[in-house]
Please model this.
Amino acid sequence: MPFPTPSPESVVHAAACREVLEAFLTPTRLDRIEGVLNGRTRHISLVLENIYQSRNASAVMRSADGLGLLDVHLIENENTWSRNKGVAKGASQWLELHRYLNEKDARQACVNNLKTRGIKLVVTSPHADGHTPETLPLDQPFALVMGTEFSGASPFMMDHADAFVEIPMRGFAESFNISVAAAILMHTLTERLRQEGLTHPLHDHERTVLRAQWLFKSVRNARGILARHGLTPPPSLPS
Model:
């Protein structure tokens, strides 16, 4: 399993939070949370490398949430992401954001984090030995790297790539806008995962922790409600 399993203590704590908070949501909202949990996958992750415009990164995150991804890695040593509520529509709060703000070398830290977990690095770039979204192998978990709007992925990411993928262009334009390209890639790849039975649903303990987090974010004054029951806010997934 590429990601560490939540500790037994975290799972118990999350379950206790769920028991308290569920009473404050409608059955419709509870069903929605369960439906989203059922559709989440960690088989595909995203890496956004120094995206210049935060609204573009936020748009990509909105697509990632809508298509069932969970993990987004942000490399911000040149351009720092700031939440754009108008574009993201709150999507970032339902994702696991991995940021490397305190690392001396954010790129290296991100690559190390992914590769030590056995996650392949798939860089979006035209390349002689590259794949299309229809031919990219899906047998191993991978992270899809989207580079900056102006020059694409950095030479560092290109050097550390395990594979390359590109969207074939049929017109005069050389490339799509980054948010459009990311949406096309994620849609095609997640649909292939489902068709090929490779969705790899979340571990039960991951679901327990995420469910508690999402309940907490859905209930007004959830912190105060939990405090009255002697509980702190639910734990985060281990990174």
